[in-house]
Amino acid sequence: MKQLCVFGASGRTGLMLINNAVDLGYGVTAFCRSESDRQYLPENVVFVVGDIRNSEHVDQAVAGADVVICAFGQREPFKDVFCAEATARIVESMKKNGVSRIFCIAGALCGDDSTNWSRFIKVMAWFTRKMRPEVAADRDEQERIVETSGLEWTMLKPPELLDENEKPRFLHGENLTIDVYSRISRHHLGKFILEQLESDKYLNKKVVLRY
User: Which CATH superfamily is 3-210 part of?
Assistant: First the structure.
């Protein structure tokens, strides 16, 4: 089974994905910011504590991995802008360590994907960029770094994330419309990523997921 390296392991999405991966028999290296995060993770994961913007710390986690999953993002009050810098370090480390496959979770409103946004979502995206321009620019740059990395990448574009499954099935595709009612559970997002580990369907593509 593949060895997965998960950055953002202590977040709700990262924890959900790691638990599902362990249940399926995958090896997992979990990168966290604090030693205290160990208590939330399964006992049989490799635990790495460090600064995600530190090349040596990132190398420690990436070495020996088959797949890297970026599940981190800004948290309220959205003042810590770090996603682009951290992703650049991860891409650099992957190339150094001979790891080619990366999954990156970004928001549905990140990047220049407005062709599949409803009119209300376009207004929401404009307002978000006006209120938090640094955060928006950081996420846009993160996408650009992944897309131009030369790696085998897949960009996940979920809308609102739920802690509980809202429906038993969900949709996925490159051109799904995003509107004010679009949402997906963290469980289904993680399930989808694990299903794609052996698939090239969305290789070097962005994919939207929603109910």
Answer: NAD(P)-binding Rossmann-like Domain (3.40.50.720)
